[in-house]
TrEMBL record:
Protein name according to UniProt: Fibronectin type-III domain-containing protein
InterPro entries from the UniProt entry: Ig-like_fold (IPR013783)
Length: 328
């Protein structure tokens, strides 16, 4: 009987130790990083910026934070007239719609155990200047244009009188309001900028420029789109005339193109080359064709012909096979 009591006591002791160990492990698993001495950093807008009515608030992620609280009071936190915005998100950005006016924002980071120091409060203004004198024309890249991966990242727009600085934003997507910001810059003194720190891959891009006026107001953000197509067009397949064919002039050349590949499929044109030598050093004629057939008048003789494709982004595809023909 005594032996059984000892066994029970030992088993009970082991169970208690095991439960305590599990509790310690569980406690370690939920320990949060202490972020109470850190401050999140707001990327845009910054203090004293003037922004449009619908704007993107973007901040750097804070290590250890699981969610963020963005508060916007008008005209200030010290003397608030109303709370314009108060929201919590697990992301590091929010789109906010505000009426024209004067505001202050404050950003804090949180996790299950701690709250960071606030970023702010920082003042900013929501304002818009209407009228033809506030029009900014976005010049380069032109609206709806195509570029390949060698795009040089140069952006230019028309200047306005009475401007103290410009704000620039480049976003990936088809809509400026919801696009992913890949580059933004404030306090630009000129009416152009070179953005070379971006990997311009296949996709849609939208860019915007806003002017800050010397009188303290600002224009709306004017936007434009362009596309990057970095995929060469397909290689044509020759259809007619058949190899070694004997034909009359004008000669009807026909080929086929498979479906274009890549995310962005810029318009494709075909270039038909007819030469008197197989190396194509003596090209008799070269025609650019929209479509897959063309009639070309040729003098009597022996010829070689091939086709390749070019797209609107400047990508050149591979040459087709070469065929010979005789014009009688």
């Amino acid at each position: 009987m005594l032996r059984n009591s000892r066994i029970f006591t030992l088993n009970l002791y082991g169970t208690v130790v095991f439960v305590l160990c599990l509790a310690l492990v569980s406690c370690n698993d939920v320990i949060e990083k202490d972020i109470s001495g850190e401050t999140p950093f707001m990327i845009v807008p910054q203090a004293n910026d003037t922004i449009p009515e619908y704007s993107h608030f973007l901040w750097e992620p804070l290590e250890g934070a699981t969610h963020y609280r963005l508060q916007i009071f008008s005209p200030s936190f010290a003397s608030p007239t109303f709370i314009a915005f108060d929201s919590t998100t697990s992301a590091n950005s929010l789109f906010v719609s505000l009426e024209r006016g004067t505001y202050e924002y404050k950003l804090t980071a949180h996790n299950n155990g701690y709250q960071s120091l606030p970023s702010g409060p920082f003042p900013f203004v929501v304002d818009t200047v209407q009228g033809s004198q506030a029009q900014i024309n976005l010049n380069t890249p032109s609206s709806g244009s195509y570029y390949n991966g060698s795009f040089n990242g140069f952006f230019s727009w028309s200047g306005l009188s009475g401007v103290s600085s410009y704000e620039f934003s480049l976003r990936e997507g088809t809509e400026y309001a919801t696009g992913t910001i890949v580059h933004s810059q404030n306090s630009i003194a000129s009416n152009s900028i070179s953005v070379t720190n971006v990997d311009y891959t296949d996709g849609n891009y939208v860019w915007g420029v806003k002017a800050y006026l010397a009188n303290g107001a600002s224009t709306t953000t004017f936007t434009s789109t362009f596309r990057i197509d970095d995929t060469p067009p397909v290689t044509p397949t020759l259809v007619a005339p058949a190899d070694n064919a004997i034909v009359s002039s004008p000669v009807t050349f026909t080929w086929s193109n498979a479906s274009d590949t890549g995310i962005i499929q810029s318009p494709v044109t075909s270039i038909v080359q007819v030469a008197t030598d197989e190396a194509f050093t003596s090209i008799e004629t070269s025609e650019t064709v929209t479509g897959t057939t063309t009639d070309i008048p040729l003098p009597s003789g022996n010829y070689y012909w091939r086709v390749y494709n070019m797209d609107a982004a400047g990508n050149q595809g591979s040459y087709s096979t070469v065929r010979t023909l005789t014009v009688n």
